[in-house]
């Protein structure tokens, strides 16, 4: 029970930490990406009651096709951040590390990092 409460607190913290302006790095390439404030929370979502989600604004020069990102979602169970394109295809999956940066990979397996600006 204590472990479940600790994991829930971590997940809520990750979801609240997601919105903001980031530098997205993939290899030597960088771009700016903005995760807008949540437009859906578990309390008002019938489709994804276990997640927080919002809009993404990605600059056109983002690497690895991430300039197509349109939506973000953080799963409240595991704290995983996923960026989707407008068709709902997952483009990036990441987790927040101890330095509060998001680290993960694209759908093609390329390593990516989101650092708060």
Automatic annotation (TrEMBL):
Where on the tree of life does the source sit, at the highest rank?
A: Bacteria
**A molecular function GO annotation:** endopeptidase inhibitor activity
Q: Does the keyword Magnesium apply?
A: no
Q: What keywords are assigned to this protein?
A: Signal
The yes or no answer to whether the keyword NAD is present is: no
Q: Which InterPro entries match?
A: Protease_inh_B-barrel_dom
SUPFAM superfamilies (alphabetical) = beta-Barrel protease inhibitors (SSF50882)
Transmembrane feature ranges:
none
From which residue to which does the signal peptide run? 1-17
Q: Which Gene3D superfamilies match?
A: 2.40.128.10
Q: What is this protein called?
A: Alkaline proteinase inhibitor/ Outer membrane lipoprotein Omp19 domain-containing protein
